[in-house]
Structures are given as C-alpha cells and as structure tokens.
C-alpha cells in the first residue's frame, strides 16, 4: 500500500517538474499568436503636395480650314497632308481669268475718267486764252473810241456843226461797240472760270463706280487663292485639281502644332488652387510627360456641369519632329491642390462611428482609438485637421477589424 502511494506522489512530482520547465521560445511563440499583424504609417507633413489628374483632348493651338472666296475650277493644289508650311505660302488656286479681265477693265475705266476730270479742271489751253484776251482788249479799245467820238459829236451838234443823222450814227456806233465788248468779255469769263460742278459730279460718279468694280474684281482675284495664315502643318486635303470648287467649301485643313492645348473641367475646390501661368505636368496616352502652363481659367462655371474650364498650353518644340505630340489624343493634366494645413492620410486609415471619424494610433505595441476631425478628400487620401501629432503611427488599413487595446505588431515598423 505504501509502495502505491509512493508511485502516485512520484508521478505528480514529475508532472509539476515538467510543467515548470517550459522553454522561453515556446512562451514567445504563444505570446506572438495573441498579437495582430498590422501595417502602420507615420504621420508627417512631408510630401504633402496634392496633385489631381484631369483628362482632356490634346488640340492644336490654332486650326483653320481656309477656303476659296469665289467659285471656280481648281487649278493647283500645292501641298499634301503632313506637309509643314510657312505663313504666306500659296496653298491652292482656282481659275482667275474672269476676275483678271474684270479688274483690267475697271482699272482702264478709272484711268479714262481721271483723265477727263483733269482736262475739265485745266480748261481750254493757254493759246486759246491768249487769243481771246487779244479780242477782248480790241473790243474794249473800240468801245473807248466810240464813246470819245460820240462825245465829240454831241459838241458839234450843239454848235450846229453836224446834222442830226450824223449824231445818231455816232450813237449807234457806241451801242455796237458796247455789245461787241460784252460778247468778248463773256467768252473770256467762260475760259477762265472754274469747271461746271455738274460735269465734275458726273465724272466723280463714274470714277467711284469704276473703283467699286475694281475692288470687287480684286476681291475676286484674292478669293482665287488660299494662302497659309500662319506657320503650321497640313492635316487634311480634300480639294482635287480640276474639280469645281464652291466658295466657302472645304478644301484643306491647317493646324499649328508648335503649341498644343488641353482643356479640362475642374471642381470649385481645385479652381481655388489654380492661377494663370502656373506650371503643371501633362501626360499623354503613353505616359510621356511634358511641362505645361495654365493659360486660361474660366471665371464662371459651366451651367450644366457646375465645373470650371481650365486651358493648359504645352510647347511642342519642332512640330515636324518625331517626338512631337499630335492633336486628337487624350492627355492627363496634373493640377496642384492646397490643403488646410492638416495631415494627409489614406482614406482606409479612417473609421466612421456614431461620434464621428477616428483612427487607430499604434502606441507601445497596442492600439489607441483616437477621434479626429477631417477636411476635404483628395482622391484616395483625406486631410486630418485635428487629433493627430507629427511622428505618430496609425494603422494604414483594415481598421474595422481591429479593437482598441489590442496588441499589434507592425510589419513595417521601421518605415
């Protein structure tokens, strides 16, 4: 019996001995199983710049479809699609024969009318005036002599030295001399006075009509040519030599790819952060980046969308080079945004409760639930304006699966 009790005591002693000899490694493994693995993020105002990307179509700075001003047969197309041309280059022409003839006729009419006007203003030639002056002066001398002779005849008649018929003859001679002088004087006055206004007005009217016809013909002539209004690239040619072109119809397209523009629509929050002339980054569909500048910001929002239009200009270098961007593609514009001075953290770090928003702060290997005040959301991040301090660590994601007070171990504790 004593032997049996001794055996039981021996077994119990061995069990106690074994239970008290558990290794530290086994205890550590057990403790780690109780910790939850989390990924943390450090609260910092470094790298606080916010950029929002907006998409828009790449367009040339200028785009025109120059047309003929008149209708006619296309005689030449001097360019082809993809060709780079300088301002003033003759791109295409149509038959200008009828307009050239009309212009010549109108100019000839103008020349003739001007010549007539000059002749009228000049009057009769100097020789005619000289001869008429001589005749008028002769008539004046005859008049003076007739007057002197009549005075003499009156004295002789008073002395009964001559008859009444002789006196009457002297009186008639004076009347004849007076009439002759008036006639010559009227002729002289016509030669030296200004041309008649009615005649001048008629000639001036003819000149005006001829000039109007000449202007129409000149406009017609200019309308037979298409000239490049700026340096650019021919992006389309639809006219064909020999075809009939209608005034204003589509012939070709010219674009200026030396500078491109992208127009995007932005919300009020972004609009407040932008200013004309500010530099921005633009990415094309292939992810290639270029620097652009804000050229224009609409002062008023679009009535249907409530957004503001922002135009960004991008230098395209030599538009004919292989690296030049082309219009018609989609680009993304990175627009900077200003914060309210808080901390930017991922949206997944913020939990939502009845009392407001909160985060889980990692402190001494445990979780502390902290109420925070949040501001605007910028894409996948949100601004925390109150509740966090510089250098603190918060759980990056999965906060809804964690509890305050839980022990945690960070997989990126040194980041």
Principal-axis shape? elongated
Structural class: alpha+beta
**H-E order:** HHEEEEEEHHHHEEEEHEEEEEEEEEEE
Indicate the radius of gyration in whole angstroms. 54 Å
The biggest beta sheet is recorded as:
7 strands, antiparallel
User: What's the N-to-C terminus distance?
Assistant: 68 Å
List the helices and strands and how they pair.
Layout: H1 2-19, H2 24-34, E1 36-38, E2 40-42, E3 50-64, E4 72-77, E5 84-85, E6 90-94, H3 97-122, H4 126-158, H5 164-192, H6 197-222, E7 225-227, E8 232-237, E9 244-245, E10 252-266, H7 268-271, E11 279-283, E12 289-297, E13 308-315, E14 330-337, E15 343-346, E16 351-353, E17 356-363, E18 366-378, E19 381-386, E20 393-395, E21 408-410
Parallel strand pairs: 1-21
Antiparallel strand pairs: 2-20, 3-10, 3-14, 4-6, 4-9, 5-8, 6-7, 8-10, 10-13, 11-12, 11-14, 12-13, 15-19, 16-17, 17-18, 17-20, 18-19
Helix pairs in contact: 3-6, 4-5
What does this 3D model show about the protein?
The protein contains seven helices and 21 strands. By secondary structure, the chain is an alpha+beta fold. The protein has four domains: 36-48 and 341-410, conserved putative lor/sdh protein from methanococcus maripaludis s2 fold; 52-61 and 256-337, Efflux pump adaptor protein, beta barrel domain (Elongation Factor Tu (Ef-tu), domain 3, Beta Barrel), CATH 2.40.30; 63-96 and 223-245, Beta Barrel (OB fold (Dihydrolipoamide Acetyltransferase, E2P)), CATH 2.40.50.100; 105-208. Strands 2, 15, 16, 17, 18, 19 and 20 form a seven-stranded antiparallel beta sheet that branches. It has a six-stranded antiparallel barrel with strand order 3-10-13-12-11-14. Strand 11 and strand 12 (289-297) form a beta hairpin. Helix 3 (97-122) packs antiparallel against helix 6 and helix 4 packs antiparallel against helix 5 (164-192). The longest helix is centred in the middle third of the chain and has 33 residues, at 126-158.
């Amino acid at each position: 019996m004593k032997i049996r009790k001794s055996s039981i005591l021996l077994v119990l002693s061995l069990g106690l001995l074994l239970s008290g000899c558990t290794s530290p490694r086994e205890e550590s493994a057990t403790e780690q199983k109780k910790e939850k693995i989390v990924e943390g993020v450090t609260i910092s105002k470094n790298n606080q710049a916010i950029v929002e990307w907006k998409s828009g179509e790449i367009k040339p700075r200028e785009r025109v479809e120059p047309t003929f001003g008149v209708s006619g047969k296309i005689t030449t197309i001097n360019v082809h699609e993809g060709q780079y041309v300088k301002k003033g280059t003759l791109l295409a022409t149509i038959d200008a024969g009828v307009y050239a003839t009309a212009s010549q006729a109108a100019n000839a009419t103008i020349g003739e009318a001007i010549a007539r006007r000059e002749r009228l203003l000049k009057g009769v030639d100097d020789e005619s005036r000289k001869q008429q002056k001589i005749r008028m002066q002769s008539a004046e001398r005859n008049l003076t002599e007739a007057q002197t002779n009549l005075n003499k005849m009156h004295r002789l008649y008073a002395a009964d030295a001559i008859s009444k018929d002789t006196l009457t003859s002297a009186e008639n001679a004076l009347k004849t001399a007076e009439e002759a002088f008036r006639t010559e004087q009227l002729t002289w006055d016509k030669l030296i006075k200004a041309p008649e206004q009615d005649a001048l007005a008629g000639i001036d009217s003819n000149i005006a009509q001829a000039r109007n016809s000449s202007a129409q013909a000149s406009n017609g002539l200019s309308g037979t040519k298409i000239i490049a209004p700026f340096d650019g690239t021919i992006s389309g040619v639809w006219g064909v030599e020999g075809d009939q072109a209608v005034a204003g119809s589509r012939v070709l397209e010219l674009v200026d790819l030396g500078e491109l523009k992208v127009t995007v629509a932005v919300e009020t929050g972004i609009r407040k952060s932008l200013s004309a002339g500010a530099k921005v980054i633009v990415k094309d569909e292939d992810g290639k980046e270029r620097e652009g500048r804000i050229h224009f910001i609409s002062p008023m929002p679009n009535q249907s969308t409530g957004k503001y239009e922002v135009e960004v200009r991008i230098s395209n270098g030599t538009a004919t080079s292989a690296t030049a961007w082309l219009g018609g593609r989609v680009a993304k514009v990175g627009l900077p945004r200003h914060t309210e001075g808080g901390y930017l953290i991922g949206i997944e770090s913020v939990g939502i409760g009845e009392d407001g928003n909160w985060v889980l702060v990692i402190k001494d290997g445990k979780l502390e639930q902290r109420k925070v005040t949040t501001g605007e959301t910028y894409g996948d991040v949100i601004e925390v304006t109150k509740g966090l301090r510089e250098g603190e660590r918060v759980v990056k994601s999965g906060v809804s699966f964690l509890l305050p007070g839980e022990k945690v171990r960070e997989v990126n504790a040194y980041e």
